Each structure stands twice: as structure tokens, then as C-alpha cells.
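Troubleshooting log. The previous structure file for this entry was overwritten by mistake, so regenerating from the original sequence record. Sequence copied from the archived sheet and checked twice against the printout by T.R.
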Amino acid sequence: MVTWRRAQMVLLSAQGMPVAKIAEVSFTSDDRVRDVIRNSNADGFDSLSPKYSRGRPKTFTLPERREIKKLPQTQPPLRTTHPTCPFSASPQPCAATSNASASPHRTPSKPSRRLMTWVA
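Regenerated output below.
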């Protein structure tokens, strides 16, 4: 379809039809018609065929892809646990034993305000 439309633009131009009329007949812009005619004059019939890309280039080589496919089938490495946490054995503090209301944005001297959503 694209090749036929481009060929039609070139043919109408060769017959002497103005660019504005070719654009109207082929339902495209004047600039597009000029581009097609300019490319046809420069490259000949090769410019009529679309040169579509085959998508994004591959980012991994074939051996890398094979290694990546093996990953879901392997066991994950053993994780060491935190000793100070009841759920683990690491020296870092555990989230389960820390003060849940403590926030880096709220200091203990400023109590939080409650929003009342009913009419008294």
C-alpha cells in the first residue's frame, strides 16, 4: 500500500500535477509529497519501498541470553540473618522491634494532629 501510494505521487508529479493537488488526492501533506518526490529523484525506484526497522536491536548476545534463561531454574544464594532481630540474626536493628510511630519527619515533641471528619 505504501509503495503504491508513493508511486502514485511520483507519477502524478511526472504528469505535471501541482504538489498541493497531489497532497489533496493522496490524503497527505504538501511536505510529505515533496519528500517522496525528492527521494525518488535522488534514489529512483528504490525510494518507493519502505525501509522499516525490525524493532529495537538486541541488547544481549546469544550466550548471555542462555545464561539469563538459566537464572530462574537455579537456587537463590543463602541469606545471612540479623542477630538482634527476632526474625533474623544481623547486628542491624530490625523493623519489627523498632518504634513504628517514629518517623524521620516527626519529632516526639510535636504530637500528630487528628483530623475530625464529622460535624459536632
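The chain has a mean pLDDT of 75. Archived copy saved in two places this time.
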